[in-house]
Design a protein that fits this description.
heterodimer; A: mainly alpha; 16 helices; 2 strands; globular; B: mainly alpha
Chain lengths: 343, 368
Amino acid sequence: MTTVLDPPAQRRTTPGDRLTGLLKQRETGILLAFLLFLAVTTAINPRFLFSSDGWRDLTLTPAILVLLAVGQAMVIITRSVDLSVGSILALTAYLTGRLGLDTGLPVPVIVLVAVLAGVGLGLVNGLLVAFAKVPALVITLGTLYAYRGLMLQWAGSDRINASDIPDSLLRFGTSSILGIPKLALVSFLVLGVAAYLMRTSRPGRELYAIGSDPDAAHLYGLRVKSRILLAFATSGALAALAGVLYAARYGTISSGAGSGIELEAVGAAVIGGVAIFGGSGTVLGAAIGAYLLTTIDRGLPILGIPDFWQRAVVGLLILGAIVLDKVLAERQHRKLLAERDQT
Amino acid sequence: MSSLLTGPETTGARPAYADHQRPWWQRLLFTRDAAVLALLVAVTAYSITSVPFFSNDITLYFLVLDLTPILLIALPMTLVIVTGEIDLSVASTVALSSVLFGVLHRDGVPIVLAALLALVGAAVCGAVNGLLVTRVGLPSLAVTIGTLALYRGIAVGLLGTTAITDWPKNWTDLAKQKLGTSMVPLVVIPLVVLVLAFAVLLHFTSFGRGVYAVGLSQEAARFSGVDVARTKLVLFTLSGLVSGLAGIYFTLRYGSARGDNANGLELQVIAAVLLGGVSIFGGRGAIPGVLGGVFLIGVIASALRLADYSANVIQIVTGLLLIVSVVAPSLIGWASRSRRRRGPVATPERPVVSEAAPPTHVPNGASK
């Protein structure tokens, strides 16, 4: 939360400082938890990581949730929330299927159209939130229903099956480069770009400023409304990209596609250290949170816990993460107070 | 229809002394609650006259049966949202109490005792939310997203994908029982009792005034002697308890205890409450409006269904209604302000207090 005020470039750092700094990062903790879980499950059953299926699942399954979590993190950092991402995912997945079925457009064009549709849907959210001054929770709860209903109405009773999706898109969903599935590469690429922009670019830093203190950001002269629009448009675009990945990965798009995934995305962001009231956290943390969530889903049976308990474990993780954040924030607060008193 | 929404809300405890210069009937009629209720009456009247079979008794019967869980949970949810908090875990609590009820019944516990224990379990769920919010000081949005997963997870974990369906017939019939020979379901009686209880609690007790005070300003509430933490803890516990009641009703009505019961119900409840004029920022809202919101969604859904529209259209309408209901006051405020700026249209009754201006608080007590 102090990152807005002290850009790292201004400090003189030694390698030792960097190491302790890295260890103190919130993302490191969640990454360690993820690696620990991976190590334990793999020790019990080596196939979890070292079989081709295991490796593929590990990298491929989280790809969709990673995209959603990155978009969600950007929105939450501005002190909003986007509950409509599951419905946007469903709508754009269906759009992808339909375009592939009806038009025969080349795949890149289909992807572009779907992502643009996502931007449009995100902009609707953003416009309502930024200009009507209604909390995002309410607006996106409304569009969650509206978009899902739109998709169902449009789809009617016909489902899209794998045979309807263009072959090239399905191949994209199943092929890999250097042993890493292409879909996972897409999510890495998006994550890398988003993490870089959120850390260094002006709009990225402004998102943090707006989330830390909207009034101060406004007084400082930031264009709060256009930045909120930007965050929601990006979230919509990423949800749409997730929709394309969904179509490519599963091939089948039923009416329930992506329903309930919005809360998983919020959960992933929260576990990854994105504070629900904005201003702190990183997209990288959210992405690791997404990895942890999806991997736990597959790993629990190996640890001898029936996978029915998966959601309970996820709930405990979310609660644990926010309690931890609270404790850390209070310690930081006390430390800052002590430092102020010393000087 | 939305022009009715212009009236400033009189329910909020802002220092809007100007309101008292207006006659009582204006204060009563030009409110958000009245607008929702008027819209409900209009939609119902339209449905009765032009939707075939809508005026049948059986429509009303199923309308009430279907709305019961939403209406039940909407009551404590109203109070929770008025304090500026939110509870997203209610549907999971419904499922958990349903599963507890089922498991205890399967293991031979007498049905009344099983129901009571399930209620206790649900109240504990609510209290856990409340303790995490008040004692640990966490934001309720994050806490209840966590417990949404946790409680649902325990429910699914206890039963897996199986369902408990061997319920005694006299008990499952009770949930669908009609009053005498009429088509009014029996559940109306506990519903009315609970609605009255919550209305009295919110509008006619000092606890209720405290609820509004907390929602408008925690600091001010504390300085005027309201125990903020206790108020919130009580409300979250009530929310759990009533969700447990809804869970038992749900189980008996459908004769089945399952881990995925009432999936997604929390969003329907919150949509209905917000549609009923409760401000997500806290401090504003009233039980009559919430009743209007719940029934408005129910009547529209049932009318559309009878008029042969699909469930999808109903979803779209619900979503749009929610958005319009929260955006409309902002739009109207913006329109009236720009009109005032343009011309010297005097509005003597409401001089300085520009209540129509959109609220600028931070959401959900984030100021901490």
